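Board notes (copied after class):
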Amino acid sequence: MNLKQHIEVMLPAIEKELQKQVSRLDADNTRHFHEMLTYHMGWTGEGAGREATGKRIRPLIVLLATASTGADWQPSLPAAAAVELVHNFSLVHDDVQDNSEKRRGRPTVWTKWGLPMAINVGDALFVIANQAVSPFVGHCNFQLVFTLLESTSNINGIGRI
């Protein structure tokens, strides 16, 4: 398979995995909050779709790196999703810090639901990212996984990647 073919197969798998991870909060008592998460991820609301989801470059790099070793990339989907979720956590918080009213051409979470809920949405994305990689405990260097997650966000003051 060439690079283009890999990307064509991986991007839908990434999107499906992201939706699976975010669905952790799709319950009757969290439905409104789940709506905020799916809105930020670009899946729902006005302007939802490819433009609103972003490019998904970070998780794609995780999967392509896995495939480049000759390994099956599919078991790495939760890790790839976690990297994207941490990135999105940082975007929600960045929008709050910078008073950004638009993200990918749509109103930001904080402009739609307020600052406290935007902070909660960002924090939830971070928690979900950590939950996504928890099955890797005992199968790999878990501290390395968390270090990689941390490096993709603003946590270390590095800035956006």
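Comment from the instructor: The domain at 3-151 is CATH 1.10.600.10 (Farnesyl Diphosphate Synthase). Residues 90 and 153 are 6 Å apart (CA to CA).
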